[in-house]
Specification:
The chain is 41% helix and 15% strand. It is an alpha+beta fold. The chain has an eight-stranded mixed sheet with strand order 4-3-2-1-5-8-7-6, sandwiched between helices. 44% of the residues are buried. The site of zinc ion has 7 residues, from loops.
């Protein structure tokens, strides 16, 4: 086992509630907090549904007791916290993506600004190669909240088999085989969008072949990023 994997494996023993709290702290540190909006989820190991951060709490203040378990119909099975109105994002994606065990939805500044330009996301940095080519998916049906199972299902369809989707005028959704990869994808997507805005419309991307070569290392890279953040960020916020 490589050194970084050994350190990161400490997170493997965390409960779903602990994982979600750590993910929230990482997203806060990464600048993806938007007061009490934005949420993360993980699939229940016993197939009962999805563990979701409770509503009306910031990423910086949510505690393990504020995490709820939702059934596949959206009923609260465990926990006393409120349910985010956009809970269908999590349920509908995980219903159709058995490979996805975690979903992140945030409203990050650069991603929202970039999505509003309508420009394609290009392979301008290492981060962008986790998502493109081809161009990133965009959910264009509405920029309003994803409040219903139908809208959640449409969003899942738009995401397809990919790891991220931009929702112009609203935010982003990233997914992963574990919560760490979904969180790292969110931080990488935000940085890719920031770089795209800095570079401007005429920027030149990596050739597709080079970008796709980088993509082959994506899984390991995202895990390494999460392991680093999970080790260091909560301490810096305590
Ligand atoms: Zn939202």
């Amino acid at each position: 086992m490589k050194n970084d994997e050994k350190k990161g494996s400490l997170m493997n023993t965390a409960s779903k509630q602990q994982e979600i709290v750590t993910a929230c702290r990482v997203l806060e540190y990464a600048g993806q907090a938007d007061m009490v909006w934005g949420h993360v989820s993980v699939r229940d190991d016993q197939g009962r549904g999805v563990w979701l951060k409770g509503s009306n709490l910031g990423f910086d203040e949510v505690q393990e007791s504020d995490v709820i378990l939702l059934s596949w119909e959206g009923e609260i099975l465990e926990g006393t916290a409120g349910r985010h109105v956009e809970y269908p994002i999590h349920l509908e994606i995980m219903k159709v993506r058995p490979d996805v065990n975690a979903v992140v939805h945030t409203h990050p500044l650069y991603s929202i600004a970039f999505a509003a330009t309508g420009w394609p996301l290009m392979a301008l940095s290492h981060e962008a190669c986790h998502f493109v080519p081809p161009d990133i998916a965009r959910f264009l049906k509405t920029g309003d909240l994803i409040r219903t199972p139908d809208l959640g299902s449409d969003l899942a369809l738009c995401l397809g088999d990919r790891n991220a989707v931009l929702i112009p005028h609203h935010g982003i959704v990233t997914v992963g085989s574990d919560l760490g990869k979904a969180v790292a994808a969110a931080t990488h997507l935000e940085r890719a969008c920031q770089i795209a805005l800095l570079a401007g419309e005429g920027a030149q991307p990596s050739p597709d072949e080079e970008a796709l070569q980088k993509r082959e290392r994506s899984d390991r890279h995202l895990s390494m990023a999460w392991n680093y953040l999970a080790r260091t960020v909560p301490k810096s916020l305590n």
